[in-house]
Description:
Blueprint: E1 11-15, E2 24-28, E3 39-40, H1 83-86, H2 89-94, H3 100-110, E4 114-116, E5 124-126, H4 127-140, H5 149-154, H6 166-169, E6 199-200, E7 206-210, H7 244-256, E8 262-266, H8 275-286, E9 293-297, H9 300-303, H10 306-309, H11 314-328, E10 332-337, H12 347-358, E11 362-369, H13 377-389, E12 393-399, H14 413-423, E13 434-439, E14 444-447, E15 453-455, E16 460-463, E17 478-481, H15 489-520
Parallel strand pairs: 7-8, 8-9, 9-10, 10-11, 11-12, 12-13
Antiparallel strand pairs: 1-2, 2-3, 4-5, 6-7, 13-14, 15-16, 16-17
Helix pairs in contact: 3-4, 8-11
Amino acid sequence: xxxxxxxxxxxxxxxxxxxxxxxxxxxxxxxxxxxxxxxxxxxxxxxxxxxxxxxxxxxxxxxxxxxxxxxxxxxxxxxxxxxxxxxxxxxxxxxxxxxxxxxxxxxxxxxxxxxxxxxxxxxxxxxxxxxxxxxxxxxxxxxxxxxxxxxxxxxxxxxxxxxxxxxxxxxxxxxxxxxxxxxxxxxxxxxxxxxxxxxxxxxxxxxxxxxxxxxxxxxxxxxxxxxxxxxxxxxxxxxxxxxxxxxxxxxxxxxxxxxxxxxxxxxxxxxxxxxxxxxxxxxxxxxxxxxxxxxxxxxxxxxxxxxxxxxxxxxxxxxxxxxxxxxxxxxxxxxxxxxxxxxxxxxxxxxxxxxxxxxxxxxxxxxxxxxxxxxxxxxxxxxxxxxxxxxxxxxxxxxxxxxxxxxxxxxxxxxxxxxxxxxxxxxxxxxxxxxxxxxxxxxxxxxxxxxxxxxxxxxxxxxxxxxxxxxxxxxxxxxxxxxxxxxxxxxxxxxxxxxxxxxxxxxxxxxxxxxxxxxxx
Length: 521
């Protein structure tokens, strides 16, 4: 249906010739189209003498035989935990591991006496050494530790230092390396592009609404380490959940800027938004004439799929209602989630995804490319195929952002370029994710293959962003830097020294401008 605001001309009844000659249809003529072009309001269905074939029965859930893998029982303290408890969202919320003492107790229960070190370090270490390594990582990390029971139950605790899930959520000091000189918090300059509190408006037609600072599970490589999660020894967070006044101001801004057609609601993670707030935000955005698409960002499907399966979960029901409302008025609501490795996917994930599909909810996935976790073609291909099997659209593969204390997880640009070439043809073209660099300094998303230059010796790649205008962005060149430890040792030290000097000069210039600005005031 087309809105009255877009309708020009008259509504004309016409008779359709051919196989539909006995049907009366209404067509609309639009001022923006050829006046002779008639657009049917309803698509005619050809008459058929034979009865339609019967529909195949649709299962409510995947089959659940009695021998279904109760994988959480590998955790000693959950060895007798009933499925109904592990499937309960309330139980999961109460058993999150997030404080240092809490984590220490969990590790003491789950670790064997001896565990292997990371493969590139070699050897083994006793349990106490490993726990000390974890605590050292927590003191140095930008992100605090917060892990849902589902994630903990998917980790191989016989070899945690080499487990692809453990490395995403729990830091080890022994794995950390010196930061690149060009790294800094808020590497994407989101705060600079924030016209009002909690809203980022960088692209002309899109806005990012940051409504919460809480996540069900905290990633060590979080882009918003400057504000998400609890304070750490390294970072005092400066971000809070949006209050009512901030929400109203952001919504008013979106409504008053008619060029905005797409809003992504994130944080933090919308999984921890109260269901009535989730629905209210969605309703109010969908009611705006200028908004066509609303996206809710949540890692919940990857780290706590049980919630989606639980009967009468208010958050899931609110999302389903919003999706149905949007579809009825010709708009879109989608859930954007975040899987990085095939091991995150279990039969619970499959059930949760099926429920979302049956409720008509579009789900897309964004993956972050992480060194030693998913930076090889076999792992990434497996992940993509499993996502496709669950009808989740593999959307983006992100080059890991340049934020502090995770240098050991970043890959050189060459890795994502090689991976992109290898991924072509592994499945249908529309299911191949785009390989993206979110450009440092606020340049926005750009395919890695569209770099202007890439010096593999210095590890410096340059990009432009034609889509961004104003604020000095025309013809601006953005740079991405490969991790220092991946560079040729012969030039590494001299390059780092020159980059540090560049940072020092830039900081001095910034401070001078700030002093001049204060003097003018």
